[in-house]
Structure to design on (501 residues):
């Protein structure tokens, strides 16, 4: 399922009336040519209009980029301009805008060929602030041709996420479990981000599920499941799971409305397994793998966090509990003193990332269909089948969570680490996660700022792009795992477990 935007960035330059435009146009051509040589021409467009102080040039450029079906813009300060015209264009354009400036290159004397890009760039940023226009500015926005090419390429996942979120529908199914208040959060903040929310009863979904009985497509889905599962002891449940998968896919398709992109969260306990006769974990993992993230337990902000992670990484994501510490015995036997991708970890850096079984099979080793361990004990085996268990593949990960606060603000955290190639004898979809200074991060961010236990997990390191995305979405309160000797604002610096002096 195609569930993220394609990006096409228009490169636009300009020049003030009192400077020749030749330098700007020449640098634009060099920039686009270099980008195409490195990354191809699929995501980039060279706008032939050079902006001037005349506002007519803005309208011409706008018509040109719309005709070229560009949904993002890079204003490239290859000369002193486009200071004034560029800010007006950024204000009018309905899409992500980034600003870059050309660094001075070449040899002395710097006379005719001097760009003065920094000067016009700083004035443009000032003007944009006055106009209240939000644009993306990279950490080091003044660069050589090669550096600017890389910054434009890094802008693609950022633009992809901004566009995706503003055309996103969040579908929720069923009530939140009464004992899971942690997933509750203010809904109006979704609307502030441009997200539409549609809520449905699980009875509506159950009615649709019954109508899919004997659907001719069930056998095909069953065959896919049999191929995907390494060890399958539950052949009897696969037709029901396939019927539910078709129900969910049709439901998503029929309830998409006028939005292009979808993320979903649904109830999965306590009434679901009793009435449907299975747990939805494995099906949710399969739909997530197809590009529609599904979060458990009606965790709305978890579902949106997953979608943002999918847009940024361009890959499948999952949602995990920050579940429990690693026992001292496991640490001593399997981790202590060992080097993992060049790093050694203390026991305070580790936790078990776990969920019942929503991580896609492509990210698991030894995956198998199992009973939901907790439900099996509570309601018996008959209705507890349908969760996928396995060990999450080792490698780099990024943790992401956005959340709405009690006082109506958006906050977020981002942390980078890795899943270790170490197993622990337990149940569920799980992996031992190492995040530097996790113990302090847990106390001073997750607990101090009241984040729930769910977090979206991206497979790879994407903190740099995520922080840029979150700021573009208007989230100002963004936390991360602080390194040693960098205290949190609320941290007790005289704590016994922190050696500050």
């Amino acid at each position: 399922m195609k569930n993220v935007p394609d990006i096409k960035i228009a490169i636009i330059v300009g020049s003030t009336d009192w400077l020749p435009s030749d330098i700007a146009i020449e640098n634009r051509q060099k920039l686009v040519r270099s980008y195409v040589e490195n990354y191809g021409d699929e995501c980039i467009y060279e706008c032939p209009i050079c902006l001037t102080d005349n506002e007519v040039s803005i309208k011409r450029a706008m018509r040109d980029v719309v005709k070229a079906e560009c949904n993002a813009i890079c204003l490239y300060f290859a000369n002193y301009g486009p200071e004034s015209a560029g800010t007006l264009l950024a204000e009018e354009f309905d899409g992500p805008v980034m600003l870059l400036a050309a660094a001075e290159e070449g040899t002395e004397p710097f006379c005719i060929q001097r760009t003065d890009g920094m000067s016009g760039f700083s004035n443009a940023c000032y003007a944009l602030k006055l106009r209240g226009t939000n644009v993306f500015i990279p950490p080091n926005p003044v660069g050589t041709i090669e550096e600017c090419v890389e910054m434009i390429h890094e802008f693609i996942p950022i633009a992809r996420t901004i566009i995706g979120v503003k055309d996103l529908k969040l579908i929720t199914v069923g009530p939140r479990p009464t004992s899971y208040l942690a997933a509750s959060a203010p809904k109006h903040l979704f609307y502030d981000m441009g997200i539409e929310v549609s809520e449905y009863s699980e009875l509506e979904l159950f009615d649709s599920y019954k109508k899919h009985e004997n659907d001719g497509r069930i056998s095909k889905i069953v065959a896919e499941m049999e191929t995907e599962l390494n060890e399958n002891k539950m052949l009897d449940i696969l037709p029901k799971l396939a019927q539910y998968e078709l129900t969910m896919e049709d439901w998503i398709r029929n309830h998409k409305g006028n939005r292009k992109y979808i993320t979903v969260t649904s109830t999965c306990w306590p009434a679901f397994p009793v009435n449907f006769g299975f747990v939805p974990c494995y099906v949710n993992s399969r739909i997530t793998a197809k590009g529609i993230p599904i979060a458990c337990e009606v965790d709305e902000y978890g579902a949106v966090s997953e979608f943002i992670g999918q847009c940024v990484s361009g890959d499948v994501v999952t949602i995990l509990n920050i579940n429990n510490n690693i026992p001292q015995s496991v640490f001593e036997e399997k981790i202590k003193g060992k080097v993992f991708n060049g790093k050694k970890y203390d026991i305070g850096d580790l936790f078990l990332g776990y969920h019942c079984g929503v991580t896609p099979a492509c990210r698991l080793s030894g995956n198998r269909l199992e009973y939901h361990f907790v439900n099996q004990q509570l309601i018996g085996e008959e209705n507890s089948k349908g969760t996928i268990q396995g060990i999450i593949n080792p490698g780099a990960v990024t943790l992401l969570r956005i959340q709405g606060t009690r006082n109506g603000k958006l906050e977020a955290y981002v942390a980078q680490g890795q899943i270790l190639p170490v197993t622990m004898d337990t149940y569920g979809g799980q992996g031992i996660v190492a995040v530097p200074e996790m113990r302090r991060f847990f106390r001073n961010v997750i607990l101090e700022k009241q984040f729930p236990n769910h977090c979206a997990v991206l497979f790879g390191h994407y903190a740099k792009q995520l922080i840029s995305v979150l700021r573009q979405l208007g989230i100002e309160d963004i936390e991360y795992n602080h390194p040693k000797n960098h205290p949190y604002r609320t941290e007790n610096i005289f704590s016994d477990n922190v050696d500050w002096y």
Q: What stands out?
A: Residues 167-480 form one domain. The longest strand covers residues 395-404. The chain has a mean pLDDT of 91.
